[in-house]
Amino acid sequence: MKTKDEAILEIRGTAIGNVFETSSSEEKFQNQTLRPILKFQNDLFLAVFRNYATKQKSVFFSLTPDKKMHYIETAIQRDIKFRNSLKGIVIGMFTLQEYEEYIQNSSNLNKRMMNLLIERLKSQVQLFEEAA
């Protein structure tokens, strides 16, 4: 029987982006861990954001595309509870070894994680049209 860590790595897939010997440890973690998790959890992130926007009086759905982009960025950067919820979705997919690496530099890795997530949601903003 597979260990939990082996199962997590198998369902998540391989690294996304280039990883070189000269890559920083943060860049390696981003491409080997964060990107595959964000891709794997994409549908969940879309549903979580849609729910968040709906609970915020559905203002998001009537905004122009540019303002929707700003709304996504602002919501994730300023709403601490929402941001922590999103971080939990990612951290829950870490192996124990990845978690140990994460806690060594969580501040910088959190910034990378949230920036990647913001860009991912912004690039799919058209998918939120249907919820209006």
Describe this entry's structure for a reader.
There is one protein chain. With 132 residues, the protein is an all-alpha fold. The protein has helices at residues 4-12, 25-40, 42-55, 65-78, 80-91, 96-104, 106-123. The chain is built from seven helices and no strands. This is Glyoxalase. It comes from Flavobacterium chuncheonense.
| C-alpha Rg (nearest Å) | 16 Å
Number of structurally distinct domains? 1
Class computed from helices, strands and strand pairing: mainly alpha
Low-confidence stretches are none
Chain-wise SSE layout:
Blueprint: H1 4-12, H2 25-40, H3 42-55, H4 65-78, H5 80-91, H6 96-104, H7 106-123
Organism: Flavobacterium chuncheonense
Protein name: Glyoxalase
Question: Nutshell version of this structure?
Answer:
This protein has one domain.
Descriptive labels:
0% strand; elongated; 7 helices; 132 residues; mainly alpha
